[in-house]
């Protein structure tokens, strides 16, 4: 595995290759601490993206001899973690292994389950909105899981369609019968945090690790051979670079969508989905009563009007 200190030095020297080197660090499972100052992988992240892509002001350079985070304007540090301390100048210092103080390192990733892609490195840092394919396929993704879980599965089974379900972790834990049935019928799960906590807020609070690891534990406690990786969808969506990088460090790629009928606000209908769906589309839906009532008609319309068949994310990218 690449030495983190060496990667940091190369990042500082070769500005044009910072993103590629960061991908290599994440792909190698980098969780070790740089001896000069106790910097974690997040320091590499700040170097790699410090001059663009963040929804907050640039932090400035982080040097090996002076590893510290600048205080975010407004008092909130998007990389806030348990154990941070501030000196008299209000600069934030990250003690060695601060990111591991409350949580052990993630377990070794399992072998890809059910044909899931074995993404790593740079690929995990690229937010996915749709797949690059000419096959007449689109991914059907369904979020949250607050209600109508069984009803949605009934519709999918009646149409012989499989979907990727981004159900919050606490609902997975509460409904093992739903989890077992969904997987047995050919569906798969992705990570949508443990309790639908806003991902940038979780980063600021230092709870992101909990939010992203607990759902995986919940699923494996029910079906030990299954995994949520490598699919992560932050609640509410949003292409926040901090979140994308933090998720990638845990082995997840951020999955958004290309078709959004806003079925959490308006009743789902074929007219909101079929005209906008094409090969490679990722369609966003939610578990709720109107979607359960109308999803079958949407599936039929997309198949009849567009010649597109709905599949899981894993089948779409295979």
Brief digest:
The chain has 13 helices and 9 strands.
Main attributes?
318 residues, alpha/beta, TIM Barrel, 2 domains, 5-stranded parallel β-sheet, two-stranded antiparallel sheet, 13 helices, 36% helix, globular
Structure description:
The chain is an alpha/beta fold. It has helices at residues 4-13, 18-27, 41-49, 122-125, 149-158, 169-174, 176-184, 199-205, 208-222, 241-249, 270-273, 289-306, 313-317; strands at residues 85-86, 92-93, 137-144, 164-167, 188-189, 231-232, 253-254, 282-286, 309-311. The strands form 3 sheets. Strands 3, 4, 5, 8 and 9 form a 5-stranded parallel sheet that branches.
Q: Cα-atom Rg, whole angstroms?
A: 21 Å
Beginning-to-end CA distance, first to last residue: 28 Å
Write out the CATH superfamily name of the largest domain: Glycoside hydrolase/deacetylase
Main sheet? 5 strands, parallel
- How many individual domains? 2
- Which strand-content bin applies to the residues? 5-15%
Which CATH architecture of the largest domain would you pick?
Alpha-Beta Barrel
User: What is the fold named in CATH at topology level of the largest domain?
Assistant: TIM Barrel
What is the helix tally?
Answer: 13
- Low-confidence stretches are 1-5, 7-101
Find the count of extended strands (DSSP E, 2+ residues): 9
| CATH top level label of the largest domain | Alpha Beta
- Mean pLDDT across all amino acids: 77
